Amino acid sequence: MNKTIRRASVFTLLLVFALLIRATWVQFYDGKALADDTKNRRNAIKTYADPLGNIIVAGDSITGSAATKGSDLKYKRTYKDGKLYAAVTGYASQAYAPTQLEGIYQDLLDGTDSRLKTVLDTVTDKRADPGNVVTTIDPDVQKAAYDALGDKKGAAVAIDPATGRILAVVSTPSYDPSSLTDANTAGTAWKKLNADSDKPLTNRALRQPLPPGSTFKLVVAAAALEDGLYSSVDEKTKSPDPYTLPGTTRDLSNENPSAPCENASIRTALQYSCNNVFAKMAVNLGQDKVKAMAEKFGFNDSAQDVPVRAYTSVYPSDMDRSSTALTGIGQYDVTATPLQMAMVSAAIANGGKLVSPHMVSQITDSGGDVLKNYDDGTSTKEIVSSETAGQLQSAMQTVVEKGTGTNAQIPGATVGGKTGTAQHGENNSKTPYAWFTSYAKAGSKQVAVAVMVEQSNAARSEVSGNGLAAPVAKAVMQAALK
């Protein structure tokens, strides 16, 4: 064999060898990336080749699967009372990535979770029968919140303080997840939902932190009692009315000019929602102590999973004293979700202990065998002492009995609450946010609720926590106590 042929042979063998290496690389490395690519239709074909597992509320499936016609995607997701439960379920779509519980438990619901596989499934490489997600949602409480919010733009969250079980998560206006399930029609629905100025796809209960207004005064009061700044909710404070913000000439006024806010006790200051008292209290404590208490309740936690990850509620840092004063009334850069404010009331109602909130009780295989029990895995953290919690409960009851929260009164039940009307826009130029956070107890039952109304048809002069949010909270609490 002459030299030229030998060289050509070696070069050809090198090319073949390079081709084999490349083929192996594509098959075993790039292949996985290609297989996992969300744009790979084979994934959707595989996911929707069989019915999906279901999301369960009180023993009943609120999801299902329906056979399709004329498509290589044999099944699509269906929803029972889709608008009612959208803030819980999210959506599973043939065209878009799943969200909320549908997204978190996608592998369980489509049968690809390794915990579902039997020995035979492993040998035959067959997809396992899908599992189910059992929620903590109480259908009566969920419906009460949804109906009470009605055509208002807002949200509500209800928690069992003793167990951390989330009984309701509602965001309005809502949307029907069924409109997004079919690849043939999802695009049109998606454009319409995203073009809606009311943003129905936004989960306001978990993922829209807004200024909490005077509901945050509970956190400041808790810090003052725990720190020893005041020994009792009935001790007089040193609070001039009006209170001039430190370093400024601006006087902080109260909503009710005739309220007895000068040197008012914490109880009276909560009853009448005295801004001067809590602004000065925040300054006296200092931003670090207020921030520490806020963080004990859950503010600034970037990993608040229930198991859907809630957006972070924020208590700011590095402020001057006048800004610290404004945080004392839930303004400046303080923001909170309804979930966060429900957690504040839940901890106070539960003797100062916060049980980690969760809206999934169990996940099971197709036969109902429990793969994981979340009720058994809750953690409990002491936020304030039982003595502080008892004093705050008493003061919150005064708010409902004869203060700014009388619309939340429930005959035969002990109810405590705090109203909030948070400024919105520069110089409060836009409609304020109406808040109410509360708890109720009757017999062996109890519940903590937070309601936020972002927008309603009410005249601006009628926007208040008591006028808009407290009646919603009352309806939710009544449903939970039944």
From TrEMBL:
Pfam families reported in the protein's UniProt record: PBP_dimer_2, Transpeptidase
Region entry Disordered, spans: 233-259, 405-428
Domain Penicillin binding protein A dimerisation: 53-133
Classification via SUPFAM superfamilies: beta-lactamase/transpeptidase-like
Domain of life: Bacteria
Stretches with biased composition (Polar residues): 246-257
Boundaries of every Penicillin-binding protein transpeptidase domain copy: 154-478
PANTHER family attached to this UniProt entry: PENICILLIN-BINDING PROTEIN 4B, PEPTIDOGLYCAN D,D-TRANSPEPTIDASE
UniProt protein name: Penicillin-binding protein 2
The organism of origin for this protein: Streptomyces coacervatus
